[in-house]
Each structure stands twice: as structure tokens, then as C-alpha cells.
UniProtKB/TrEMBL annotation:
Gene3D superfamilies: alpha/beta hydrolase. GO terms for molecular function: carboxylic ester hydrolase activity; palmitoyl-(protein) hydrolase activity. One of its GO terms (cellular component) is cytoplasm. This is palmitoyl-protein hydrolase. Transmembrane segments: none annotated. Its EC number is 3.1.2.22.
Length: 233
């Protein structure tokens, strides 16, 4: 069954000339507006840049197995929240195609692919890694906050099959050392397996942080995004 992504994509425009775009994907059960408001609460203001537009899309409303099949705003379904279950590729690929359309829209508006970055929190970060390391080679970077890939993720397989000089986007990850939902070891394993398959990046452990966004990681992310798409680009 095909499920459409929510049409409500929240936009935060740059304060100056628009030269790049960041697509920020929320975690399971949240919305684009919800994660934007969470960030605003932590920072006391919107996450804004002189040159970058931020897009906060909302995931499709679909039946979600960990909630006994009740509908939730999730990028994909899964059997349970565990690294050892198979990925639900039908829903992952469906969301990937709809999110790729957002990228195509930005390119049609004159933004270079290398100046587009995609990432997110928890499930949103997982979805971003599927996009960046399966179908959107050439984007400026991928970020994943408190995020994961399953043990036998197709992402690892498709990365290992890459040949030639294709651009592998750099990765930025942060993870709380007290995360009770996606354990730190799961996030670290994801990062190490991606490294083994050619991904370069940063992994920051957030001391005394649970499964949550933190102000200090948003500041680190802010600096990393400006490195990916410099203001003068």
C-alpha cells in the first residue's frame, strides 16, 4: 500500500542569499513542525543560517507495528525497535522516493546537489542514511542524531558494491551515552560499519544525554553544516 508523505513541509528561509538546503527529518511519531519547535526551545530561536534554507517535512501517517499497528507519523515500519530485525524496505523505499522529490525540487530551483544536506533525529537519521548512502550520492553530507542502522542493513551492502570515484557524503553523528531507546553501542556500531564501507565522518558522544536532542549537539551540527556549505559557496 502506497502512503503519501504529509504535504506540510515547514520551511525556514536563510537570512541572506540562498545557496544550500538542509532537510531535517523528525523521529518516529513526531512531525516536521514538532522537531522545529523542539530545536527552537533548545536554542531559544530557530536554527537559521545566512545561506541555508531548512526544510522540515512530516513523514507519512501509516500503520506502525511497534504501536500494535496503530497509525503514526513514521518514515518506515519495523517489526520492533532492535538492530537484529530485517528492514522494511517497502516503506523505506517509498519514503526515500518522496524525499528525493524534495531534493529534485531544490535542484530545479538552482541549488547544487553538493549544497544539499540531509539528516535527522533517531528514525529520521536512519532514513537520511538510507538516502545519502543508497540513492543520493553527491549530496553535501548526512547527519544522524541518536540514530541507527539495523545489523544487516541494505545500506552496508550497497556501499560495499560501490565502485569508481563516486562521491560518498561525509557523516556527522551524535549519540547520548545514556540513551535508553537506541543504545550508544548501536549508534557506534552503525558508525563503525559505515566507516568500513568508505564513509568518513565524526561521531560525538554526548555525556549524560538520553534519547534526546541537546543544545550542545545542535551547536556542533551548526558548525559542521557551515563547513559543508560555506557561506561563500
Amino acid at each position: 500500500m502506497s502512503v503519501s508523505m504529509g504535504t506540510n513541509v515547514v520551511r525556514v528561509m536563510p537570512t541572506g542569499k540562498h545557496t544550500g538546503t538542509v532537510i531535517f527529518l523528525h523521529g518516529s511519531g513526531d512531525t516536521g513542525q514538532g522537531v522545529r519547535e523542539w530545536i527552537k526551545t533548545l536554542l531559544g530561536k530557530d536554527l537559521t543560517f545566512p545561506n541555508l534554507k531548512l526544510l522540515y517535512p512530516t513523514a507519512p501517517l501509516r500503520p506502525y507495528t511497534p504501536l500494535d499497528g496503530h497509525n503514526s507519523y513514521v518514515w518506515f515500519d519495523r517489526q520492533r525497535i532492535s538492530p537484529d530485525v530485517p528492514e522494511h524496505l517497502e516503506t523505506i523505499n517509498s519514503s526515500a522516493e518522496q524525499l528525493s522529490q524534495l531534493v529534485r525540487n531544490e535542484i530545479n530551483d538552482g541549488i547544487l546537489l553538493r549544497n544539499i544536506v540531509i539528516g535527522g533525529f533517531s528514525m529520521g537519521g536512519a532514513m537520511a542514511m538510507h538516502l545519502g548512502y543508497r540513492s543520493l550520492f553527491g549530496i553535501g553530507g548526512v547527519f544522524a542524531l541518536s540514530s541507527f542502522l539495523n545489523d544487516n542493513s541494505i545500506v552496508y551492502k550497497e556501499l560495499s558494491n560501490q565502485v569508481g570515484d563516486g562521491h560518498v557524503p561525509p557523516l556527522f553523528m551524535c549519540h547520548g551515552d545514556r540513551d535508553e531507546l537506541v543504545y550508544l553501542s548501536w549508534g557506534q556500531q552503525t558508525f563503525e560499519l559505515l566507516k568500513k564501507n568508505g564513509v568518513e565522518g565524526q561521531f560525538h558522544i554526548l555525556k549524560d544525554a538520553f534519547h534526546e536532542l541537546k543544545k550542545r549537539e545542535l551547536r556542533l551540527l551548526n558548525d559542521w553544516l557551515l563547513e559543508r556549505v560555506p557561506i561563500a559557496s
